[in-house]
């Protein structure tokens, strides 16, 4: 008869009840034994392990790693709970000579160590904690960091190689274990032989995870650079190759109140031309950033913020910024830029940029900035970018502004090379017409003078006069202008009195505002002099204006300027000393048609005083003989 389900369950439980207590008792005894052994081991460890052994072990480890001599002044402290740990005070690492240079100093250094290895007479350390360390490094002319003096790290860096698949190749002996490093309130001083500059980074707090030399590294660093708080996040799959000056794949994020950015791709600390990857950069306060960095940039007062994004690649030993997009203030641009070096080793920037809107002031400010510096080192570090940099840029924009002047669909170029700087506007819409311009700074490192040429065709000068809010009687019409100016003095030192040139101006039919020509004739017959404001109650319609002027010695000389009205013609000539805003013009008012000379006789006059309200003196009045008493 088949056993019922309840009976089978009862048999199984009786069988389990016989062996389960034995298993539980055995397991409990084993666990208790382990706990007792561990507790006894921990309790007796301070008596079994010599602090001298651990101290000499960490001294030896530091010396082997750095290749320098590690000196410990303080008494070591051992802790065994919750993990075995040694703390050393006043640790100095220096060259093993009497007057050898110091690589670094640490106020307090602590590290976890292996208890079993220590009991066997060996010291193995991990989880390092540095309190107030100071590290002195040097970057040589090749761009490499002089890390150590033939220590384990230096040997590993010098001997590391890559295989055909760009994998890291190194011996097992070189692949040393590191672990985790924590830095608290540290300081780094880097002497750059390549530039002659000294960089200081203080207030460093960092967490670095680098299990072994052959393994990836991740690091988070907080510090102060030139008084500004910064944060750097760094991740690399092959950090040892990076320190060896080779190309590695890495991601670096830099953030501070003045600048933030991320670069992800191929990185090389010795050759920035080898960079290849994606770059995002934002500078929210450009003037403050330049002050912090110690650099000077012409026109920087007009640049408030900058941001850019680009895909960087190496092309013919130059860095190419492909798919470049960036914003300056509210102006966005896109295009391609190259950064490289000329055959003489001078940095060069070239490229093509298309803006939606553009401010030309920063470009032209470079031509007026003083190039000379007080000292030679200032010239190298903070000299004008025109001296330190060759430029070849082609620019275009739907809208552009230069002070009060507005341009449409502008095409321009900026060329700086061989001691000459040129800025050209090849074509541009200007006030409903067209404009071309050429600005050049020439010879002897830009101090041989310069020249400016502007040509305007069919522009609405009425709109320009209104927008600039110019005062006084002025023509409101469409016209053309040709201006040519030059100076033999350095352009940054030249004043208006040092400029010479010529101007031609002509217009179509228009209106001369604030000029009542009928009242002009009436007052000329009644008074010996009157002001221009006395005849400013209406306008004077004209058919055309045509005049030429030359500039020299701080004055403009007007040559036979003619304002041809429908009934009368105004002719002017003389001097305009523009430095004093004064006028010294002779003129005449006559009939446009000689047949009307009887009704509109010739009226000569003189204009003196200052603009915009000069004094008019009719010449016929001045020439009258005085009445005999």
What is the number of E strands?
A: 34
Mean pLDDT: 79
The largest sheet, given as strand count, sense and whether it forms a barrel, is: 32 strands, mixed
Query: Whole-Å distance between the termini?
Result: 169 Å
Oligomer: single chain
Q: Categorize the overall geometry.
A: elongated
Instruction: Please give the share of residues in helix.
Output: 10-25%
* Poorly predicted tracts of residues: 32-50, 369-383, 621-629
Structural features, described:
The chain contains 12 helices and 34 strands. It has a 32-stranded mixed beta sheet that branches. A two-stranded antiparallel ribbon has the order 6-7. The protein is of the alpha+beta class. Helix content is 20%, strand content 48%. Strand 22 (433-441) and strand 23 (450-460) form a beta hairpin. The longest helix is centred in the first third of the chain and has 44 residues, at 5-48.
Write the layout of secondary structure elements.
Layout: H1 5-48, H2 51-66, E1 69-72, E2 77-79, E3 85-94, E4 102-113, H3 115-119, E5 125-139, H4 152-159, E6 161-162, E7 168-169, E8 177-192, E9 197-212, E10 217-225, E11 228-236, H5 239-243, E12 248-255, E13 260-267, E14 276-283, H6 286-293, E15 306-315, E16 318-328, E17 331-341, E18 347-359, H7 361-368, H8 376-382, H9 385-388, E19 390-402, E20 405-417, E21 420-430, E22 433-441, E23 450-460, H10 461-468, E24 475-476, E25 478-487, E26 500-507, E27 510-512, H11 517-526, E28 530-531, E29 540-552, E30 555-565, E31 568-576, E32 584-591, E33 603-608, E34 615-618, H12 619-622
Parallel strand pairs: 5-8, 18-19
Antiparallel strand pairs: 1-3, 2-3, 3-4, 4-5, 6-7, 8-9, 9-10, 10-11, 11-12, 12-13, 13-14, 14-15, 15-16, 16-17, 17-18, 19-20, 20-21, 21-22, 22-23, 23-25, 24-27, 25-26, 26-29, 27-29, 28-34, 29-30, 30-31, 31-32, 32-33, 33-34
């Amino acid at each position: 008869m088949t056993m019922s389900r309840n009976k089978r369950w009862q048999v199984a439980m009786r069988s389990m009840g016989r062996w389960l207590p034995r298993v539980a008792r055995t397991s409990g005894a084993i666990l208790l034994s382990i706990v007792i052994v561990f507790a006894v081991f921990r309790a007796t460890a301070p008596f079994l392990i010599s602090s001298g052994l651990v101290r000499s072990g960490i001294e030896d480890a530091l010396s082997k790693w750095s290749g320098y001599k590690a000196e410990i002044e303080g008494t070591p402290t051992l802790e065994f709970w919750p993990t075995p740990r040694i703390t050393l005070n006043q640790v100095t690492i220096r060259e093993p000579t009497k007057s050898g240079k110091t690589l670094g100093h640490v106020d307090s250094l602590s590290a976890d160590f292996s208890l079993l290895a220590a009991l066997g007479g060996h010291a193995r350390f991990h989880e390092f904690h540095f309190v107030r360390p100071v590290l002195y490094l040097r970057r040589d002319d090749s761009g490499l960091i002089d890390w150590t003096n033939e220590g384990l790290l230096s040997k590993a860096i010098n001997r590391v190689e890559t295989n055909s698949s760009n994998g890291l190749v190194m011996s097992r002996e070189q692949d040393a274990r590191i672990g985790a490093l924590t830095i608290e309130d540290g300081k780094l001083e880097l002497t750059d032989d390549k530039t002659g500059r000294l960089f200081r980074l203080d207030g460093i707090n960092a967490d670095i995870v680098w299990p072994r030399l052959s393994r990836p590294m991740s690091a988070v660093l907080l510090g102060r650079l030139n008084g500004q708080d910064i944060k750097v996040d760094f991740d690399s799959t092959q950090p040892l190759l990076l320190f060896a000056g080779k190309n590695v794949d890495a991601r670096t994020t830099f953030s501070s109140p003045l600048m933030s950015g991320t670069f992800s791709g191929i990185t090389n600390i010795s050759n920035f031309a080898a960079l290849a990857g994606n770059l995002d950069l934002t500078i929210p306060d450009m003037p403050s950033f330049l002050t912090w960095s110690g650099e000077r940039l012409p026109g920087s007062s007009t640049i408030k913020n900058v941001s850019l994004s680009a895909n960087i690649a190496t092309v013919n030993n130059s860095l190419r910024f492909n798919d470049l997009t960036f914003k300056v203030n509210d102006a966005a641009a896109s295009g391609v830029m190259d950064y490289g070096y000329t055959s003489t080793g001078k940095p060069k920037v070239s490229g093509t940029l298309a803006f939606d809107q553009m401010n030309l002031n920063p470009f032209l400010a470079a031509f007026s900035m003083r190039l000379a510096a007080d000292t030679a080192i200032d010239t190298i570090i903070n000299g004008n970018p025109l001296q330190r940099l060759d430029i070849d840029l082609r620019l275009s924009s739907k809208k552009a502004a230069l002070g009060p002047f507005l341009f449409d669909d502008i095409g321009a170029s900026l060329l700086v090379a061989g001691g000459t700087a040129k800025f050209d506007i090849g074509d541009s819409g200007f006030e409903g017409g067209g404009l071309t311009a050429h600005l050049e700074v020439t010879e002897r490192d830009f101090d041989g003078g310069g020249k400016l040429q502007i040509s305007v065709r069919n522009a609405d000068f009425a709109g320009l006069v209104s927008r600039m809010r110019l005062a006084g009687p002025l023509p409101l019409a469409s016209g053309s202008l040709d201006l040519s100016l030059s100076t033999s003095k350095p352009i940054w030192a030249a004043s208006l009195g040092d400029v010479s040139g010529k101007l031609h101006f002509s217009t179509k039919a228009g209106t001369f505002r604030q000029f009542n020509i009928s009242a002009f004739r009436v007052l000329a017959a009644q008074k010996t002099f009157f002001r221009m404001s006395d005849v400013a109650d209406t306008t004077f319609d004209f058919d055309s204006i045509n005049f030429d002027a030359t500039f020299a010695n701080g004055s403009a000389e007007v040559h036979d300027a003619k304002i041809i009205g429908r009934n009368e013609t105004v002719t002017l000539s003389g001097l305009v000393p523009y430095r004093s805003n004064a006028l010294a013009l002779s003129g005449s008012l006559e009939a446009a048609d000689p047949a009307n000379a009887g009704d509109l006789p010739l009226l000569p006059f003189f204009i003196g005083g200052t603009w915009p309200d000069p004094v008019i003196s009719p010449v016929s009045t001045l020439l009258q003989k005085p009445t005999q008493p």
